[in-house]
Each structure stands twice: as structure tokens, then as C-alpha cells.
Design brief:
single chain; mainly alpha; 2 strands; elongated; disordered N terminus
Length: about 100
């Protein structure tokens, strides 16, 4: 019986190919960029930064945090598992657990 992993609202079997992992990472990076960028739309205007600059800065910082976590996971053993991907994106999750 195949084991399954739940991510991004869908159910996918474990044993992802490299292409599937890359696709998951890219889609989740876009979501991190959007979530962080939209969170600061009003804040930038309060301190005199134009909206586009504040969205780009906040979105980029979120993506960089996740990219750093993914790089550290890769350095550890030279591969990235789906659990390491999920842990890397968990640092951006603002939900109370």
C-alpha cells in the first residue's frame, strides 16, 4: 500500500521525482512571496516607502528565508526529502499550532 503525504491542500504519494519536488518548491515559493508581499501593503505607506517597493522587499525576504532553510537541508546530506521541504516552508507558517 502506498503512503501519502498531504501538502498544499492536496494528497500526493510519497516518492516524488526531482521534477515534482522542484515544482512543489516553486509553487510554494510563489505563495510565500504573495503572502509576505500582501501583508505589508499598508505598512510601507505609513513609513514613506512606495507600495511596489515594500511588496517586493517583503516578498523577497520571505523567499530568501525559505531558500536558506532548503540550502541548509541540502548541505546536511546532499538531498532534499519532502519532509525537509515541508520543514523549510513551516518557518513561514503563521498559524498557531
Amino acid at each position: 500500500m502506498a503512503s501519502y503525504d498531504i501538502y498544499s491542500g492536496g494528497i500526493m504519494p510519497n516518492g516524488f521525482t526531482k521534477f515534482q519536488k522542484i515544482k512543489i518548491i516553486i509553487m510554494r515559493m510563489v505563495a510565500v512571496f504573495i503572502a509576505n508581499g500582501l501583508a505589508v501593503i499598508g505598512a510601507g505607506s505609513l513609513i514613506g516607502i512606495d507600495t511596489v517597493s515594500s511588496v517586493l522587499l517583503a516578498g523577497s525576504l520571505g523567499v530568501i528565508k525559505v531558500a536558506e532553510a532548503l540550502a541548509r537541508a541540502y548541505i546536511d546530506d546532499g538531498k532534499i526529502t519532502i519532509d525537509e521541504i515541508n520543514e523549510s516552508f513551516a518557518i513561514m507558517d503563521k498559524k498557531k499550532k
